[in-house]
Write a structure and sequence with these properties.
There is one protein chain. By secondary structure, the protein is an alpha/beta fold. It has 2 domains: 184 residues, 3-Layer(aba) Sandwich (Rossmann fold), CATH 3.40.50.720; 155 residues, 2-Layer Sandwich (Dihydrodipicolinate Reductase, domain 2), CATH 3.30.360.10. It contains 14 helices and 12 strands. It has a 6-stranded mixed sheet, with helices on both faces. A 6-stranded mixed sheet has the order 8-10-9-7-11-12. A hairpin with a 4-residue loop joins strand 11 and strand 12. The C terminus is likely disordered.
């Protein structure tokens, strides 16, 4: 008999809706191989309304409706944070929280100013005894250390593999498979939209048309300036630096450069010179200080990052014992990010079903 995990979805955009359908597609595997069954009991959104049903919601049907432009419910006056707190205080959610079966899935849009309200969503969930899985870069980029402490005190998981490189394991790789290894720095191409635009502009495609293609595919951020101005890459850089290098920075402290239509000339010139122009995110720890930047670099042709085409991403970790470790993502999309949420949920489900001590988030 499988254990039932109660899920509260905060945010119901493209990623969360794909996650809802992915849960249904993998339901038999989750029960058979991992011993748990997920049940969505609440959905909170800013634009589409909020729903709460202790006995469960048909998340797939609701996802299909929202995709057609149908609201979940009339918009409420209360904030998503207030709604979430109210749901977490109900009898069903409180019982699931005490048993370690309550998980908040946070997928709201990145706020580059303060990382809100995502950080407040995470804090409220941990405070109520729920695990948290998020694809939002904000909490790790703005408040990783305080949230890690909150997770440890609550004896609950705070996981965010989907925040960087979709479902490709970066944080899990270091946490689970590199014990006693120190990450000294990293460099990578971590924004799909800008790498696609640079690749297309090398071929003569206009900036606006390349960006429109990414927006049509649902890959570009809702606010496209977050991508092209380098803010998305800066948030990912801050998250990686905070978690892997022990930094205490925000995206505002990352040196940043973005793309414009005028960047096309630089991309074409670099290609003509046998190089590739890439938006590179990098950070390193030197003399006890972490320096992070996002900038356009004309890379040598034999550089691993130079070979990334279109929607491909990669991160190269520089370590003390194993040298450079490269993680390459050949394709990206909604399913990859939704899978990251599922992967983190499986991590929690394994611990709940094992009935062992829930491992805490590493500070």
């Amino acid at each position: 008999m499988s254990v039932e995990l109660e899920l509260v979805l905060v945010g119901f955009g493209n990623v969360a809706r794909r996650f809802a359908t992915l849960l249904e597609e993998r339901r038999a595997i989750l029960a058979r191989d991992y011993g748990f069954s997920p049940r969505v009991i609440a959905i909170a959104t800013r634009r589409h309304g909020r729903l709460h049903a202790p006995r469960g919601l048909d998340a797939v049907r609701l996802a299909e409706g929202v995709a057609r432009g149908e609201p979940l419910a009339p918009p409420g006056r209360e904030s998503t944070v207030a709604f979430l707190r109210a749901v977490l205080a109900t009898r069903t959610a409180a019982r699931a929280a005490r048993q370690g079966r309550l998980v908040v899935i946070e997928t709201t849009t990145l706020d580059i100013a303060r990382g809100e309200p995502a950080t407040s969503h995470v804090r409220a969930a941990l405070g109520a005894g729920a695990h948290v899985v998020t694809a939002n870069k904000g909490p790790a980029a703005f408040a990783w250390h305080t949230l890690a402490v909150a997770a440890r005190r609550a004896d609950r998981r705070f996981l965010f593999e989907g925040a960087v490189m979709d479902g490709i394991p970066v944080f899990n790789l270091v946490r689970e498979t590199l014990p006693a290894v120190v990450v000294l720095g990293f460099r990578g191409v971590v924004n799909t939209t800008t790498n696609y635009i640079l690749t297309e502009m090398e071929r003569g495609e206009p900036f606006e048309r390349a960006l429109a293609a990414m927006q049509a595919a649902g890959i570009a951020e809702a606010d496209a300036s977050l991508d092209v101005d380098g803010w998305d890459a800066a948030a990912k850089t801050a998250a990686l630096a905070n978690v892997l290098l022990g930094a205490k920075i925000t995206p505002r402290q990352v040196e940043r450069e973005g793309l414009t239509a005028a960047t096309a000339a630089r991309a074409v010139a670099a290609r003509a010179a046998g190089r590739r122009l890439k938006l590179v995110a990098a950070a390193e720890r030197t003399a006890g200080r972490v320096r992070a930047r996002v900038g356009l670099d004309a890379l040598a042709a034999d550089d691993l990052l130079a070979g990334l085409e279109g929607q491909q991403n990669a991160v190269v970790l520089r370590t003390d014992l194993l040298g450079d470790i490269a993680i390459v993502q050949r394709g990206s999309g909604l399913t990859g990010t939704a899978y990251a949420l599922l992967s983190d949920l499986v991590t929690i489900g394994r611990e709940v079903t094992s009935r062992g001590t829930i491992r805490r988030s590493r500070p």
